Amino acid sequence: MLNEKEVREMTDKKITLLIDQDDVLADYMGAVVAAYNEKYHTDIKRDACVSWNLYTVFGKEIDTVMHEPDLFRNLKPIPHALEVFERLYMSNLFEIYIVTAANPRAVEAKYEWIEKYLPFFPKNHIIVCSSKFMIKGDYLLDDGMHNIEDFANAGGKSVVFDKPHNMQNPHSYPHVSSWLEFETFIMNECYPERIQEYFQEEAIS
Question: Which listed residue (12, 20, 143, 150) is catalytic?
């Protein structure tokens, strides 16, 4: 069986990365917790959000918070997300798409966030889609285990971005806890012959 490098050499095809937005590029859950606590005078901690189903953590009142456009517009970037994303994109080694699920009310705000923090990134590489396994790509970086499992079952390679809500049940998928860890993982996985050159260029820049 041909390995990743041999397939690339035969097809001259870039590796396609699909990157989730909320809780991978942008700190969605941290903002939800802060907004909910402020609105309802509670003291829920981020680490208490151990379920993908937010209703089990917050109750039905979470509907008044979790889809608000201003919430998405003002999310803080995940540490190192912007710098690593830009390095991977500018390396010209990967074809990168941001693939994100969104309530219709929040779509415009999510585009605005990307335009603000990743102004170099082309809008036609932003895909709003709940069924991410339908998108053709080689790797998916995501925090939602349903997306991870569906994409893997469709033949893709899934990488879990560790968050409290996806660490409750054991799994066998590759996982990373930071963007710096993902950068090393994806270069080792896809371009082991170029990893030294890549990080040398990073150090120079």
Answer: 20
Using CA atoms, how far apart are residues 19 and 178, in angstroms rounded to an integer?
A: 13
98 contacts: CB under 8 Å, gap ≥ 6: 18, 19, 20, 21, 25, 114, 121, 125, 126, 127
For the record, the structure tokens of 81 come out as: 């997300």
Q: Is 20 annotated as catalytic?
A: yes
The single residue of 22, 23, 143, 150 carrying the catalytic annotation is 22
Give the type of residue at 106. A
Query: Among this protein's residues, is 150 annotated catalytic?
Result: no
Which range has the worst mean pLDDT, 21-25, 98-102, 168-172, 189-193?
Answer: 168-172
Q: Is the dihedral of CA 96, 134, 100, 34 positive or negative?
A: negative
**Pairing relationship of beta strands 157-161 and 175-176 according to DSSP bridges:** parallel
Tokens describing residue 147: 């997306």
d(CA 174, CA 36): 32
Cβ-contact 23, 29 below 8 angstroms? yes
Model's pTM, two decimal places? 0.91
Model confidence pLDDT, tens digit, residues 39-62: 999 999 999 999 999 999 999 999
Q: Where are the beta strands (DSSP E) in the chain?
A: 15-19, 94-100, 126-128, 139-142, 157-161, 175-176
